[in-house]
Amino acid sequence: MGGLLFTSTSSVEAVKAFREKLAPGKVLRLEEASLVLTPELARLFQELLGALLRGEAVRIVPLEAELTTGQAAELLGVSRPYLVRLLEEGKIPHHKVGTHRRVRARDLLAYLEASRKRGRELLDELIGEAQELGLGY
C-alpha cells in the first residue's frame, strides 16, 4: 500500500496549471473516455492535487476497506506491535479473519481524528497553565 508523492518541478507546474482549470461542469477527457466533474469530484481533485503540490504523500483508501495490522500501522505512522496493543485495549474496533486482525479504514480514521483532537485539547490545557503561571506563553 504505497503513497503517491509528487516532487518533479516540471510536473508541479503542469499540476498547478491543471488544478487551476478544475471546476464543476468541466469535462476531463482521456482518449475516448470523458468525465463531467461534479462539485464533489472537482473538490476531491482540488484537494488531492493541492496535497501533492505541498509535497504531502497521499493515499486513497476506501472507508470500508479492511486493512491488515501492518497497513493500519503504516497509515497511523506507528509500529505494528503498538497498533496491536491499541486493538487489544479496545481503542480501535477490529475483527478477526481466522487468526488475523482486520481494521476498517473508517475506524482507523475515527481513532486518528479523536487522537488529534485530544492532543489539541492537551496542548490548550498546557498553554492555559503556562499563562496562569506567567511563563510567557
TrEMBL record:
<feature type="domain" description="Helix-turn-helix">
    <location>
        <begin position="67"/>
        <end position="114"/>
    </location>
</feature>
<dbReference type="Pfam" id="PF12728">
    <property type="entry name" value="HTH_17"/>
</dbReference>
<dbReference type="InterPro" id="IPR009061">
    <property type="entry name" value="DNA-bd_dom_put_sf"/>
</dbReference>
<dbReference type="InterPro" id="IPR041657">
    <property type="entry name" value="HTH_17"/>
</dbReference>
<dbReference type="GO" id="GO:0003677">
    <property type="term" value="F:DNA binding"/>
</dbReference>
<dbReference type="InterPro" id="IPR010093">
    <property type="entry name" value="SinI_DNA-bd"/>
</dbReference>
<protein>
    <submittedName>
        <fullName>Putative excisionase</fullName>
    </submittedName>
</protein>
